[in-house]
């Protein structure tokens, strides 16, 4: 069965760092683009960072550029989000996403989410 298992969420002080991990099971991880989203109560889920299947290209939300880094290790079927210089507004549930589009076919999976809380 397909699983995306996030870990690493925690309570940290502003200015601190966290590294989130997402381990993938049950699908061909290396051909999927991976991304991290986040969501807070009353707000729509937003894209934080994305990385192509081979890891050759990344993209980030403007709000996290220069502070967050997405990376993947296809040998370990794992994607990471390194979060530095955290701010209270980074507080959210962070979700791992896997996506593959081939012609008209779309395959997409979501993790269960991990809570990140940044105190001021």
Give a written overview of the molecule.
The protein has strands spanning 3-7, 11-13, 18-25, 33-39, 46-51, 58-60, 68-73, 78-83, 92-102, 105-110, 114-119. It starts with a strand and ends with a strand. It is an all-beta fold and 120 residues long. β7 and β8 (78-83) form a beta hairpin. The protein has no helices and 11 strands. Strands 2, 4, 5, 6, 9, 10 and 11 form a 7-stranded mixed beta sheet that branches. The protein is globular and about 45 Å long. 0% of the residues lie in helices and 56% in strands.
Helical content class: under 10%
Sheet-strand content, in percent, reads over 45%
Tally of individual helices = 0
Mean pLDDT value: 97
User: How much is the radius of gyration in Å?
Assistant: 14 Å
| Helix-strand makeup class | mainly beta
SSE sequence, one letter per element: EEEEEEEEEEE
Estimate the global geometry from the Cα principal axes.
globular
Report how far the terminal alpha carbons are from each other. Answer: 40 Å
């Amino acid at each position: 069965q397909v699983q995306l298992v996030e870990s690493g969420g925690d309570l940290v002080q502003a200015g601190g760092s966290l590294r989130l991990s997402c381990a993938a099971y049950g699908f061909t991880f290396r051909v999927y683009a991976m991304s991290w989203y986040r969501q807070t109560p009353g707000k729509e889920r937003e894209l934080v960072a994305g990385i192509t299947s081979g890891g050759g290209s990344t993209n980030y939300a403007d709000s996290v550029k220069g502070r967050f880094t997405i990376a993947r290790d296809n040998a370990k079927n794992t994607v990471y989000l390194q979060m530095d210089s955290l701010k209270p507004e980074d507080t959210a549930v962070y979700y791992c996403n896997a996506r593959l589009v081939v012609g008209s076919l779309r395959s997409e999976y979501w993790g269960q989410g991990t809570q990140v809380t940044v105190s001021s």
